[in-house]
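Changelog-linked ticket: FE2/S2 (inorganic) cluster example.
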Amino acid sequence: MSSGNEPGAPQPPTEAELAEMDRDQLVKLGTSLDGVEIVDYPKPWPVEGTRAEKRAERLVAMWFALSAVAGLAFVVALIWWPWQYEPPEQSSAHFWYSLYTPMLGLTLGTAITALAVGVLLYTKKFIPHETAVQERSDAGGAGSPEVDKKTIVAQLAHSGNDSTIARRSMIKRTAGLGAGVLGLGAVALPLAGFVRDPWKNSENKDSLWHTGWQPIDGETVYLRRHTGDPEEIVLVRPEDLDAGAMETVFPFRESERGDHHALSVALKRSDNPVMLFRLRPADADKVVKRKGQEDFNYGDYYAYTKICSHVGCPVSLYEQRTNLILCPCHQSQFDLLQYAKPVFGPAARALAQLPITVNDEGYLVARSDFVEPVGPGFWELKA
Ligand code: FES
């Protein structure tokens, strides 16, 4: 926009004249100062109240209303849809659980799309489609003069007024509702995580304070294999592993035998997978143990969480020759001979070690839960 000081251009009015002008005059002044000529300015609905106009208004309002309904559905789904894991065998519960993420995507996507379509349709059907011609100006400078600021505001208000938004209360209400509910969704998103207090019932076995390895009421927690069938219980004895071998194991309690749901959850819970290693005798002699965790191993057997301490990927690439455990996500490497401390990559903490032993029956069992955060963890926040 130019200030109109070129030779031959209309002179800007004085401040007193400017204050006297109404909006139409300011619009005309603004266009002439900018050297803009409006060639055509057709009103979208020259005759008010026609059926076509009302139909167009209802169409726009319908999209905004759809956006509001979808936005509300998003908030409801985010907070109340069943989100906790259910095993496939519980077919009905599993079905609803499996729809949680698609539901969030569907409702939020519909809310945003409907709002966008409403705005596009409103622009297309109610904003005048003027044809204007303007000389190109290369003038630059710091800030716009007062006259330019006032006239551009008038022009914007004029366009808004000519779009007849002032008398279209249905569109205004539904647009406000759609945008408002979407705003509510944006607020609910970060707040939803606080709806359930992770600190509450901290002794509960499902709380975030524990993993599935926590002994409950003194019951033994065995190391078991995952054979693909949750109900096929295969416990692990030391002699089951060759020297230099690694195996992924999960927690098992006798009280859960035959309980399909509990067994499935134990195999699925994200902080349960543990890597059980049997070191070769020559390597076992070189082990450096972590202070305070000198008795967490059983002979040559060491158990570490499979969850990377960086951002929680499964670290299951074990190179026997170098005794390094590699996380495929960001290439962190952990040295098995030095309490799985990181020796390369972005991980900053050692993998948590599970204290293990062998019980009277000769099976490998956990002596307690982990004593530090598993994965990126949140236990640190307690301090
Ligand atoms: S999650 Fe393992 S290195 Fe990033």
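Closing comment: Example verified and attached. The two ends are 59 Å apart (CA to CA). Residues 276 and 303 are 4 Å apart (CA to CA).
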